[in-house]
Design brief:
single chain; 309 residues; alpha/beta; 6-stranded parallel sheet; 3-stranded parallel sheet
Length: 309
């Protein structure tokens, strides 16, 4: 068996094509485009890349997309003050504070910021109000990565209702909201984590397996029920050639890319899973592009809610 590849990159393009005329119509009706504000504190290299991609995507679909930057030396009070200003901004419908925040802001900075963002502008879906609505089964703005996975499964006509689903990972960003969204679509859901005994056996029961732990190659073919759908949320960088050679045989284009760059982006799912699974998301090109696409969808949704259209 060779798994069908679930192309998140292609779906993300289609979603952008679908949303662009809707944004144009919103702009025509209201005399302004939907507004997205992204807050970046400090100069984390990975965050710089993520923010640049989000701003570019927002501008391409017709949003007003603004970067609000604070220096590494900014205090938590500075950040909270900026969030409060954006909460009251008439031109910004959506606020995203890029994580991670600098450690100098304090251990509870992320929570303090989430508590401060106006729920109706929380396009990450992380505030207590939006998390609570998701638990109650009436989400307004849900986290983008799980939302993108649901969209991908739906577009690929992969049945969720009545199926067994297993989510490896219990973070508030992916694992927990992913489990809730699957549950709301009538899957029977198991959440696994580092304390789950006999993890392989639990995962092998799943018709839909979502790996979101940030551990390269954790999920091997022994974890996978034949024909199952496997969604790989992991984003890991490998720099050891021995590891790369264990993943990809000599002559494989990804091994050649590793040797060219000295590193390679891989997921939580080992390539040998493709020989067992029925469908599989690649890394890169799977879940990642959908996260940004759903950020665009959430921004338009927030703008419509604020203007009641």
């Amino acid at each position: 068996m060779s798994a069908r590849i679930l192309d998140g990159q292609a779906l993300a393009r289609r979603l952008r094509e679908e949303i662009t005329p809707q944004v144009a119509e919103f702009t025509r009706r209201h005399g302004r485009p939907p507004g997205l504000a992204i807050v970046l504190v400090g100069q984390n290299p990975a965050s710089e890349v993520y923010v640049r991609n989000k701003l570019k995507s927002g501008q391409e679909v017709g949003f007003r997309a603004d970067l609000e930057r604070l220096p590494e030396t900014a205090s938590l009070a500075d950040l909270l003050g900026l969030v409060e200003r954006l909460n009251h901004s008439a031109v910004h419908d959506a606020i995203l504070v890029q994580s991670p925040l600098p450690g100098t802001l304090g251990a509870d900075a992320e929570w303090r910021v989430l508590d401060a963002i106006a729920p109706e502008k929380d396009v990450d879906g992380f505030t207590p109000v939006n998390a609570g609505r998701l638990v109650q089964g009436r989400p307004t703005l849900a986290p983008c990565t799980p939302l993108g996975i649901i969209e991908l499964l739906a577009r690929e006509r992969i049945q969720i209702a009545g199926r067994r689903a297993c989510v490896i990972g219990r973070s508030g960003i992916v694992g927990k909201p992913m489990a809730l969204l699957l549950l709301q679509r009538d899957a029977t859901v198991t959440i696994c984590h580092s304390k789950t005994p006999d993890l392989e056996a639990v995962c092998r029961e799943a018709d839909i397996l979502v790996a979101a732990v940030g551990r390269a190659g954790l999920v091997t073919k022994d974890f996978v029920k034949p024909g199952a759908t496997v969604v790989d949320v992991g984003m890991n960088t490998i720099t050891d050639e021995a590891v790369a050679k264990a993943w990809f045989p000599e002559g494989h284009p990804r091994l050649a890319r590793f040797r060219e760059r000295g590193s390679l982006l891989v997921g939580d799912v080992h390539p040998d899973v493709a020989n067992v699974a029925g469908a599989l998301t690649p890394v890169p090109g799977g879940v990642g592009p959908l996260t940004i696409a759903m950020l665009m969808m959430n921004t338009l949704r927030a703008a419509r809610a604020r203007t009641r259209t």
